[in-house]
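This follows on from our talk about sequence and fold. Can you supply me with one protein entry, sequence and fold together? Could you add the entry underneath, on a fresh line?
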Amino acid sequence: MRQRTIASHFARAALGGARRQGFDYFPLLQQLGISPELLDEPRARIAPEQFTRLLQALWQSLDDEYLGFGRGLSKPGTFAMMCHALIHCRTLGKALQRGLLFYSLFPDAPDLTLETEGERVRLVLDDSTLRDPDHFLSESLLVIWHRLGSWLIGQRIDLEQATFGYAKPAHGAEYDLLFPCPLVFEAQRCSLLFHRRYLDMPLLQDERTLKHFLERSPADLLSRPDDGHSLSSQLRRLLSRDTARWPDLDSVAAHLHISPQTLRRHLREEGTSFQELKDQLRRDIAIYHLGRADLSLQQIAEQLGFSEPSAFHRAFKKWTGVTPGAYREQEN
């Protein structure tokens, strides 16, 4: 229930290549229990599991791991074969070099390179050849390589910067879940910057763990938002312990041994607020339960601390653009 839900934008964007090719994906959405009407609502969210299944189904249906956004096709299984090629490398640096070399053997593959900048390393993507107006493949490739690298060494690679060769989009607030680091838009290129010490770290994975990893990847890498080490993430974990009795800001500040004013300031610096975090968590928990039949609307409202169902209805519609009842009908 603590999992972040996925903005409807990303599901719409993932369908862009199929749409351009004239592929009828409505039966696919129906099969996955994803309402087309829900995707058309900008504020709507979908569960991470649904997003994972959508990506996997699109890869199989289009016979293309680039989802129709690349200059050419990437046959399903290419990513898995690349992982098998690098899993026996001794260090992350060697593994990344082998993985990028693997893809460079395909003439139509997006161009990814590693550049050294003193004590830092930059993973650079040349997206000039992609047919990707919503930048879905560009962002997906950066996320996948970052999270693959983190998985290989068994620890999260802290990003120091992410750059994008386009203006900040309307859904820019979602980027902290993909790239928990300082963001630069309208840059010369798309890239991720991190410390080069990670390149010398040994791989902790092997063919046995790779088999399990590949059962859901790379879709799983995209559908699991990266909370990082931010204060917002700490608060989300703290608040999710008991959602029926929400602590107030003063209690949370005392728990963290900081003043309420300092807590407000830090959250403001991260572009959020205590109320916004609480609403996002309540929204995500509500979506979790609405996608199942385990609780009635009244029980969900009570679990989220609402005094009456009508207050829950109003809040949920404000968060997502649809009522809880309509959301449950569209999901089931």
